[in-house]
Predict the 3D structure of the following.
Amino acid sequence: MTVTREDRWTADPGELLRVGPGFRLADVDADTTPGYDGRKKHGRADLRAGTDELADLQERLYAQSRQDPAAPSVLLVLQAMDSAGKGGIVRHVIGATDPQGIQLKAFKKPTPEELGHDFLWRVEKEVPEAGYIGVFDRSHYEDVLIGAVRELAPPAEIERRYGAINDFERRLTESGTRVVKVMLHISSEEQKARLMERLDRPDKHWKYNPGDVDERQLWPRYMEAFQTVFDRTSTERAPWYVVPANAKWYARLAVQALLLGVLEDIDPQWPTATYDVAAEKRRLAAT
Amino acid sequence: MTVTREDRWTADPGELLRVGPGFRLADVDADTTPGYDGRKKHGRADLRAGTDELADLQERLYAQSRQDPAAPSVLLVLQAMDSAGKGGIVRHVIGATDPQGIQLKAFKKPTPEELGHDFLWRVEKEVPEAGYIGVFDRSHYEDVLIGAVRELAPPAEIERRYGAINDFERRLTESGTRVVKVMLHISSEEQKARLMERLDRPDKHWKYNPGDVDERQLWPRYMEAFQTVFDRTSTERAPWYVVPANAKWYARLAVQALLLGVLEDIDPQWPTATYDVAAEKRRLAAT
């Protein structure tokens, strides 16, 4: 990412948070704010400041695709333990862009029809069109996370899926979609506090499900499953980023920075007119 | 609408802008700001102030539906002549809400597959799920607007469609969807200025299409087609609202007020917990 306006990023989050060889999830401290030399108030101000830039780049991305059906798109994949803040990313980072350029899909528990197909069937239908920013709130990675932890499929099938995912994502990137995969990483203690808050506040009761505690009790196994996902599917073309997320403001700022980095790298340009501008001005003036 | 916070609305826009018996589109002055006693700066401030209320009501609407699959939804239908500001409504009114609660659909020129079905086939697939605010940027009304003006279907077929639309919308409302239909009304002179601006600015060239001038030359026929639409399809349950839109700030504020009015009328409530809150607190505390 080009560091602009503010110099509070001391390192490129696209490098710093990227899952490379030897990455260990267990070594990530969810309380930290890597690469950012500022506190909450700065982070919130910088998030607002980044909004206009994101909106501008998004409009260019969309405009470019109106003339070129092979123009790029972006796919942001969000995965996390419950209450880690996926919804906040969608609301505060994605929500600050133009909804006309967003394709948001929240993947729920698969339906019987979906289960009657390969796990990528329902995902394929939701990949973003040229010019759009697609956002997956949960994704095909559920099938190798809860899928592995809850043994919803035999080990050989889970194993097969890593390869299928890499093939799928390679095809996506080769056909012009930039894939950005983000795990929001909170600590187990932070999750406990957030779930307790949901139980404490009647206006949050609807967000709580007794199953949340059941999943929580499998925390170490989920962390192992995430580690395996990173080992097997963080590729050059479709890398994973692990974003410490105990500080919500940091997680939002970091995901915005990752998106800005990808969009600046695409550097979408306003398309030039395919009609005669002067002639059209005369036609219009005559009406 | 309950007039809150600001008293600049001197009349309920839900009454004032509603298309009732005897309504004449030709009598509406697109330059006016009916019912609002303020200028641009006030309108923009009030729009911002309404954002939090809209977001709160939207979250309640969504929360309610998580326990009740028959909970209400809202459908906002946007129709207008080109450049009237549909995109701005989506960006500035809808864009200020949580994207997770929005189902936005921009209807384009029908595909061959869509033309092989009844005109409502593609529309049915996009109606909002319980708890969502659906937004149609163009809609089934294209089939009785451009459909009539460009004679894309014989008169008897156009005639049939008014009845089919009323049946369809009655079914929607009876199954819990509140339907709000908005025409953004600009003057022909205002459109000319806006199209000319697109031709003057290279970063807007992609938004201009030579066909826009062709449609513009049929302005009086489009106004007649809109009048017929109002006469035939502004019903008690699914009314039309004509919003003067030469002042963009007013159109945005008015559409926000219409949505707030409908949501306040639904008055969605936080659902009560279906689990034992105290027991869950103990379970969670023990983890």
About this structure: The first helix of chain B runs from residue 13 to 16. The longest strand of chain B covers residues 177-185.
